[in-house]
Prior knowledge:
Cytochrome Bc1 Complex, Chain D, domain 2; 2 domains; three-stranded antiparallel sheet; two-stranded antiparallel sheet; 18 helices
Amino acid sequence: MKTTLxxxxxxxxxxxxxLLPLVAAAALVAGSAxxxxxxxxxxxxxxxxxxxxxxxxxxxxxxxxxxxxxARAGDCVACHTAPRGRLFAGGLAMExxxxxLYSPNITPDAQYGIGTWSEDAFFRMMRTGxxxxxxxxxxxxxxxxYTKVTREDSNAxxxxxxxxxxxxxxxxxxxxxxxxxxxxxxYGWRTLYFREGEFKxxxxxxxxWNRGAYLVEGLGHCxxxxxxxxxxxxxxxxxxxxxxxxxxxxxxxPSLTSDKDGGLGDWSIKDIVDLLQAxxxxxxxxxxxxxxxxxxxxxxxxxxxxxxxxxxxxTLPDNRGRKSGPTAPTSTNVFALxxxxxxxxxxxxxxxxxxxxxxxxxxxxGNQSIEMDSAVNPIRIVxxxxxxxxxxxxxxxxxxxxxxxxxxxxxxxxxITYIRTAWGNHGTPVTARDVNELRNAPLH
Length: 444
């Protein structure tokens, strides 16, 4: 029976379809509503599927664009792209006190990158600092900060990384000294310094403040540089954002707290926004590693997000409780020599009284980067010069020429001492030995 009824059912369906137009026509003649057309239904179904597919594609495009923005906010390109290397192909050498680490390939290449990773695996890495293979990541990757990233943002970043061109470039092995090349030691580091968990908004604060806190503490990983690092590569909670020397790079990341001696205590929101986004403000300019952060990351962020970061930073307490004191005593001869060199080589751009030229050369009077406890940054700038980054808001920055060839250690120390103590600045004097140590230090 089954073999006989099968063909009859097919024939019945064909006859039914062929008679539908006649039945519909008869219904119209009779003045009643036509029967639904199977062709119309099929077309409607196809249109719905197409619309759904288009909506899905649009959503996917939006997620990828958002992921690109978030990857900018996290400054992923700075570490995962080597000089003259392919985008996100890794290979950047990161010098540390423990040896050299090389950033991995995070393009969607199946063999060397993250091409075989799942969305879940990527999020697990962000949240826990553990790779899909079960390896603990070294804290050169800001795992203590990226753990705060939400699942939604992690998924968007992953979608963006999966959309870029895969690069078949193998990863370089780290060259760490013993015992730091033993990953098992990372369990101890994690016990001391790693607290897993998503950022939790403070219900007593505004939406803007919480957005700023999320960006600064999480994706922006600002504490990585602006917190003193101990011999184990960790930092205490009480030292958060209080500034510190960046290991190996020989730059000092200033305090981001309300410390009025070397922090943001008397900065306005506009001052902070301008410095972060444009690379230069009425209070100074960014150089060295911070110039790279502004160039690769902060200049691309929205006005709202940068302002939110500034709002959050303005509320960071000064746990050290330092107060501005009187200017440290300076030898009359050293001060006079520094004043003469300044008038000869610096005043044309920075002004006779250190007032600077807005939009071009930053002021030196009342400039915290000049006055702060560490004299590393002014010594580096006087010796090696530098340029603020070219940004959308400051596309043609004016640079600082190097004076290492023109000034010996004594002369350089004198002029740096002068700008740290003149015009009411309360920095401490600099010695020729301080200058010599940085003159011979490697540049990074």
